[in-house]
Amino acid sequence: MGKVQEFEITFDKSKVVYSPGESISGTVRIKVGQALQCKAIKVNCNGFCGITSKANDTAWTVEEQYFNSTISVADKGTLKLGEHTFPFKFLIPATAPTSFEGNYGKIVYRVRAFIDTPRFSKDYNVEKPFYLLCLLNLNEVPDIWGTSSSAVTQQFTYMLVKTGTVVLKAQTDMRGYTPGQIIQVTAKIHNQSGKSTGNMVASLMQRVTYETKRPTHDLRTIAEVEGGVVKAGKEVEWKEQIIVPPLPQSCLSGCELIKIEYYVKVSLKSPDVMLTLPIHIGNVSLDKKLQPSIKATPPTPQPAELTPPSASAPDAAAPATTPTMLPRPAPKPAPRPAPRSRMSSSGNSPSAPPAEFHQGAEGGVDDAYPNKRQSQLVSPNAFSYAPGLFFSQNQNHNGPGPGPGPGPSPGPGPSSGGATAPYPTDNRASTMPTPLILPPDYGNSSYPQEAPPSYDESCNT
Q1: Which chain regions cross the lipid bilayer (predicted)?
Q2: 140-288+368-378 adopts what CATH topology?
C-alpha cells in the first residue's frame, strides 16, 4: 500500500468568505509516494448548526442541517505515483444563515474529501472550513427608524431609610448601527433624594440565546463607558459615545437555534436603577434618504370653512319644487344665560395652556455638574467570530467623534470642545410654533334684557 504524502483542499482564488446563493469551487490535491488502490474519492459540502449545554463542547445536543451535498470525483481504481488533482463545485443555498461561533453553539460550513480504500486499509480524509456572510441591511429591518428611549423611576433607600426617588431617562440617537459607527447616548437623571448617587455607566451588551429544552442565555458586556455622580436634589444631562466594534449581526436569518440581541444598558451604581435600549447591529448602515417621511397633519379648518347662518339664505329662496332639501326641525329654545360671576368660574377652560406650563415642563439642568469620563473599555474576550467584520476606512460616522483609539476624551460638560458629536435633529419633535388660541373675552359681552322665546313661539316663528 502506498502512503499519502499530501492531501489538501484548495478553493479557487483562495476565497474564504462566500454569500448565500453563490457557488463554491476548488480542487482536491492528492500526492502519493506509491500506487494506492481506492474504491472512490468523494467530496462533501455541508452546513449545519450545533448546540450544546456545556461551554466549548462539540458533543451537540441539538443540530440543525442546512445543506449536505456529496459528489464522486473518482471511481474505483488505482492512484499512480505522483500528484493528482480533482476539481469540484457546489451551490450554496440562498437560505443558509451567516456563520457564527459562540460558547454554546456554532454555525459551521465546510468541504470534506474522502479516499475510500478497500477493506482492512486505512481511509484518508481532510476538511477545510469556509465562512458564509448574509448581509443584514438595516434599512430593511421593521421599526428601525427613530430613537430608542426608555425611562424608569427607582426608590432611593439609604441605611434602610427611604430618602427619595431617582428618575432616569435615556435614549440613543438611532436604533441600528454597523461596526465602526458611534452610538450617541443621552441620559437625564433627576436625583430627588437627599444623597448623591453612584457613578453613571453606559454599556453595550450582547445577549445570545441558544434554543434547547432549557434555553441557555450568554450575556456579555461588549463595551462600557462611565460618568460621574448626581448630587442630592440635582438634575443633570449626561451625553456619551460608544464605538461599535466588529460584532456578529443581530439577526441570523435562517437559523432557528441561535438568537442574537444587542442593547445599551444605562445604569447607576447606587441606587440599583437600570434601563435598556434595544438596538440592531447590521452590515449595511441606515440611509437617511430612505427614511419614510412623516405625514403632515391636516390643517385645522378655518372659521371661513364653517357655514355661517347667512349662507343658507340663497337656499331658502330656491323654488319649493326642489325635493332635495328636507324640512328642518324647529330649534329648541336657548337656555337662559347664567350670571356673569358664574360664567367666569365655569368649566370651560381656555384652549391655550398657561404660561408656566412651558417653563416647568422639563426642569432646569445643572450646568455646574462635575462629570468624569473614562476611555471606552472593551473586553478582549467579548466577541464571537463572524466573517467580514472589519472597520471600513470610509465608514460614515454619525457625527464627529473620537476615533477607535483608546485615548481618553474630555467630559461632556458645557465647555467640552468635541467629546460629544452633535445630535441630528431629524427625529426630534417638530419646531413649528403652535398657533396661540386666546380665550373669549367676557368683559364686553352684552346679555339680553328679556327672556328668550318659548318653545311654542319658536315653532310658530
Answers
A1: none
A2: Immunoglobulin-like (2.60.40)
Identify the CATH assignment for 4-132 out of 3.30.1050.10, 2.60.40.640, 3.90.180.10, 3.40.190.10: 2.60.40.640
Contacts of 278 (CB under 8 A, 6+ apart): 148, 175, 261, 262, 263
- pTM of the entire predicted model: 0.63
Q: What is the pLDDT along the chain (461 residues), one digit of tens a residue?
A: 457 899 999 999 999 999 999 999 999 999 998 888 889 999 999 999 999 988 888 889 999 999 999 999 998 888 899 999 999 999 999 999 999 999 999 999 999 999 998 877 788 999 999 999 999 999 999 989 999 999 998 887 766 666 788 999 999 999 999 999 999 999 999 998 888 889 999 999 999 999 988 899 999 999 999 999 999 889 999 999 999 999 999 989 999 999 999 999 999 988 889 999 999 999 999 988 888 765 544 555 544 444 444 444 444 444 444 444 445 555 555 454 444 433 333 333 333 333 333 333 333 344 434 444 444 655 544 444 455 444 444 444 444 444 444 443 333 333 333 323 333 334 433 344 434 444 444 444 444 556 666 767 766 75
Q: Which single residue is written with the C-alpha cell 458533543?
A: 59
Assigned C-alpha cell, 412:
461632556
CA 186 – CA 423 distance, rounded (Å): 10
Q: Please, how many CA atoms are within 13 Å of residue 151, restricted to the half-sphere of its CB?
A: 7
